Sequence to fold (303 residues):
Amino acid sequence: MAWFKRILIVLPVVFVLYGCGAQEEKIAREIEFTAAESGVVKVLTFNIRYGSAGDGGNRWELRKDLVFDVIASHRADVVGLQEAEAFQIAAVRQALPQYGVVFAGRDDGKSAGEASPVLYRRDRFSLGDSGTFWFSNSPWKAGTKHWGNTLPRICTWVRLTEIESGKMFYVYNLHLDHASQVSRVKSTELLAKMITRRNEAAPFVVMGDFNMGMDNPAMLYLQEIGYETPCPRMVDSWQMLNRSRQPDGTFHGFKGRTGGRKIDHVLVTDSTEIIEVGLDKREFDGRYPSDHFPVYATVRLGR
Fold:
């Protein structure tokens, strides 16, 4: 009878483990990445709205599947998220295991507070160096805020290498302050200095929620319109392909309105070829995945 009791004890454990596996398979999205030309990269920047917000009918639990589905549908090579809290990042990892993730919470440099994670295709790229800096007088000190910031503001960056070709590039994903113009000016100045620390031969992409339009003086600085910067001149990928059109707004407050300012951007150097760019303004049965529209761009990275 002893052996029979042991079987009775083991069987429920096996059943539970199998059940967990089935649940994970149901949660994970399948992504069929298309074959990409060497050096051609699709990026997506998406402010997903922090999950602890009391958003009622738009709270995280009711829209998280839309966020996962939208990210998966773009089949991007690199994704930059903003306002992502640790539990949201964990959920994204479970739903999108095809991506590696680099992040740091803005409050402690670990998991506390909102983060600006970078997701990258593990099958196409290898991760080299990476890090996070704070937009403050002490950029390496977690949680610091100066220049009128109401909250700590950060940039998370990665150096990726295309496995097949060995081509290397950098990605900078940021979220700038929504209230202080002084902070936005000083933040772009610090960003330019940080970009000069990269391997100078490598191209780069800067994306995120800048909380300002391209005509703001802080953005004119990055474009070298009336200013000189220590790093290569940057241009907005959307403007490069839509010179004669005014952009739709990207913050819509879960209402889908497009009359505001475009504050989410994908910036590249002017030697970069822009193949495709757009805003994802889809709604699903009257619901939006976030209070920002995602912005996507496909680029051919140059020197």
